[in-house]
C-alpha cells in the first residue's frame, strides 16, 4: 500500500509535459511490438503455404 500512496505523501508529481512524453514513448513501444508481432505472423503464414 505504501507504493500506491507515493504521490499523495508529498513527493512531487511529474510535470504534465513529462507525463505526456512518457505516455507517448510507452505507446510507441507498444505499437512497435505489435507491428513486429503482426509481421512475424504474416511471414510465418506465408512460409507455411510452401
From TrEMBL:
Subcellular location: Cell membrane
Entry annotated with the keyword Oxidoreductase: no
UniProt keyword annotations, A-Z: Cell membrane, Developmental protein, Membrane, Transmembrane, Transmembrane helix
Entry similarity comment: Belongs to the DVL/RTFL small polypeptides family.
Species in which this protein is naturally found: Musa acuminata subsp. malaccensis (Wild banana)
Membrane topology of this protein: Single-pass membrane protein
Single Gene Ontology BP annotation: negative regulation of cell population proliferation
GO CC annotation: plasma membrane
Name this protein carries in UniProt: (wild Malaysian banana) hypothetical protein
Coarse class of the protein's main subcellular location: membrane
Amino acid at each position: 500500500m505504501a507504493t500506491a500512496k507515493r504521490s499523495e505523501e508529498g513527493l512531487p508529481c511529474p510535470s504534465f509535459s513529462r507525463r505526456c512524453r512518457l505516455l507517448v514513448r510507452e505507446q510507441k513501444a507498444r505499437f512497435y511490438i505489435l507491428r513486429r508481432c503482426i509481421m512475424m505472423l504474416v511471414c510465418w503464414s506465408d512460409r507455411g503455404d510452401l
